[in-house]
Specification:
Blueprint lengths: L2 E2 L4 E2 L12 E7 L10 H11 L7 E8 L2 E8 L2 H4 L2 H5 L5 E7 L14 E5 L2 E11 L2 H10 L9 H13 L5 H9 L4 E8 L3 E6 L8 E5 L2 E5 L2 H7 L2 E5 L4 E6 L2 E6 L7 E3 L1 H6 L5 E2 L2 E2 H15 L6 E4 L5 H11 L7 E3 L14 H9 E3 L1 H4 L3 E6 L6 H12 L4 E6 L27 H8 L3 E4 L2 H4 L9 E3 L1 H4 L1 E2 L6 E2 L3 H4 L6
Parallel strand pairs: 2-27, 16-25, 19-22, 22-23, 23-24
Antiparallel strand pairs: 1-26, 3-6, 3-12, 4-5, 4-6, 7-8, 8-9, 9-10, 10-14, 11-12, 11-13, 14-15, 17-18, 20-21
Helix pairs in contact: 1-7, 4-5, 5-6, 9-10
Keywords: 4Fe-4S, Glutamine amidotransferase, Glycosyltransferase, Iron, Iron-sulfur, Magnesium, Metal-binding, Purine biosynthesis, Transferase
Catalytic activity: 5-phospho-beta-D-ribosylamine + L-glutamate + diphosphate = 5-phospho-alpha-D-ribose 1-diphosphate + L-glutamine + H2O
Family: In the C-terminal section; belongs to the purine/pyrimidine phosphoribosyltransferase family.
Length: about 500
């Protein structure tokens, strides 16, 4: 069943040019044959580096050493939060790790993950990628029962829900299964108890989660690129509604009794996931090239060169070039040393920040008709500045092609699609958008083609941010600060 978009109220948008995914999760269970050969903390650090694109605000690692959980987390990138001394001081046999991006509010250590809880039956550490649509309702129930929250993250709501179930059943995996019947929305989880590593995926499989083998041990991660970074062998994607339990070196699979269609977020293939990842059976890099191929079929134009916006627009640009026969060339150079703490200049700071992050190669652009390919347009301000950079470099014409449909609706499942009033496509025709960003022509990938780009995928897709149709019923509001509104931020 598809649920139509209703009129919603949203929280203010912070004005970033690109959308952000919420989180990346990782877990490792070291089998007895590999003790001393695998360091869970160090491997979690390596994996989080590979998943850094999924969250640059905060990160953390929790390690289980003989039933005692030690956690280190803070605001910052992985290499800012951890060093050799910290990792060497975190011995153990099980670990979970997390990288985080939040949609609103100021970064805080309280919202960083893993979330670690000690209760009367033991302790656990939880990491979560996604967003719970009923977090506010669950939180209010817990607060009325005397629960006290320390963060604005819906992951803490999730943790308390699992703990409450744990007090009523005989194992942590049964508690997670029972909790899956109460929580609604998107969640890919890596959970550590004193003896077990558990991974679970929501019944729709909105966010990716896979499992691999490292020597005799098991690892789980949001994306297969993290397994590659460790030299682990990919086993398979965790299925929607599936719960994996790793205990005593053995892997068990359980399924919740919620029957749903498998609808992975299609934007994982368009932008979020790393190109070298394989998500639900489909190569992300190939999906992006397919998007470019369909763009060339749907919006052909006479031009001299195809240019991709680094980094996510490049595979689609290559696909457009191959399909159209128009040569691909590098037209924009990205400054890879610009961090998230880059100090904005005073006057015209936004335009300057774009120019210092992306600069044009005049020799490849001057006097040429350019096809500029990017993955999406959110507000349109950055696109307009990029077009100006290309034309200042001598481009005779700039034709923009976008490898996704226009954003028209908010996302409830872990992507910070802003309020409609901030979306350039809302209430405007493509011709009006073309005039606003200053291009000679503009073409968006059709929704029909978008649903076909992930060749070999074992899933259907959630495209609610484009179509306004959602796999589950969504709330009337998209509020993201749980302190102010009672609705979960990200986990």
């Amino acid at each position: 069943m598809k649920y139509k978009m209703r009129k919603v109220a949203c929280t203010p948008f912070d004005g970033q040019a690109k959308l952000h995914e919420e989180c990346g999760v990782f877990g490792v269970y070291v089998n007895k044959e590999d003790i001393g050969k695998i360091s869970p903390a160090h491997d979690a650090y390596t994996a989080l580096f590979a998943l850094q694109h999924r969250g640059q605000e905060a990160c953390g690692i929790a390690v289980n050493n003989n039933g005692v959980i030690k956690c280190h987390k803070d605001i910052g990138l992985v290499n800012e939060v951890f060093n050799q001394k910290i990792l060497d001081g975190m011995p153990g046999t099980i670990a979970v790790g997390h990288v985080r991006y939040s949609t609103t509010g100021h970064p805080s250590r309280e919202n960083a993950q893993p979330v670690c809880i000690t209760h009367c039956k033991g302790n656990l550490a939880i990491t979560h990628n996604g967003n719970l649509v009923n977090a506010g309702k669950l939180r209010r129930q817990i607060e009325l029962d005397g629960g006290i929250f320390r963060s604005s993250s819906d992951t803490e709501v999730l943790a308390y829900t699992i703990v409450r179930e744990r007090l009523k059943c005989g194992s942590i995996e049964q508690a997670v299964l029972h909790a899956m019947g109460k929580i609604e929305g998107a969640y890919s989880l890596a959970i550590m108890s004193p003896r077990k590593l558990i991974a679970a995926r929501d019944p729709h499989g909105f966010r990716p989660l896979c499992i691999g083998k490292l020597m005799h041990s098991y690892v789980v991660a949001s994306e297969s690129c993290a397994l590659d970074a460790l030299g682990a062998t990919f086993i398979r994607d965790i299925e929607p509604g599936e719960l994996i339990v790793i205990e005593d070196g053995e892997l068990r699979s359980m399924k919740c009794d919620i029957k749903c269609d498998h609808t992975t977020c299609v934007f994982e293939y368009i932008y979020f996931a790393r190109p070298d990842s394989v998500v639900d059976g489909a190569s992300v890099a190939f999906a992006r090239q397919e998007a470019g191929r369909y763009l060339a079929e749907e919006y052909p134009v006479d031009a001299d060169v195809v240019v991709g916006v680094p980094d996510s627009g490049i595979p689609a640009a290559i696909g457009y070039s191959k399909a159209s026969g128009i040569p691909y060339d590098v037209g924009l150079i990205k400054n890879k040393y610009i961090g998230r703490t880059f100090i904005q200049p005073g006057q015209d700071k936004r335009e300057r920040s774009v120019r210092i992050k992306l600069n044009a190669l005049r020799n490849n652009l001057e006097g040429k008709r350019v096809i500029l390919v990017d993955d999406s347009i959110v507000r349109g301000t950055t696109c307009a500045r990029l077009v100006k950079i290309l034309k200042d470099a001598g481009a005779k014409e700039v034709h923009m092609r976008i490898s996704s449909p226009p954003f028209l609706h908010p996302c409830f499942f872990g992507t910070d699609v802003p309020d409609r009033e901030y979306l350039i496509a809302y209430g405007r025709t493509v011709e009006e958008i073309r005039e606003l960003i200053g291009v000679d022509s503009l073409g968006y990938l059709s929704l029909e083609a978008t649903n076909k780009i992930a060749v070999g995928a074992t899933c259907g897709f959630c495209n609610g941010c484009f179509s306004g149709e959602y796999p589950i019923e969504v709330p009337d509001t998209v509020e993201k600060n749980i302190f102010e509104s009672g609705i979960g931020e990200n986990g």
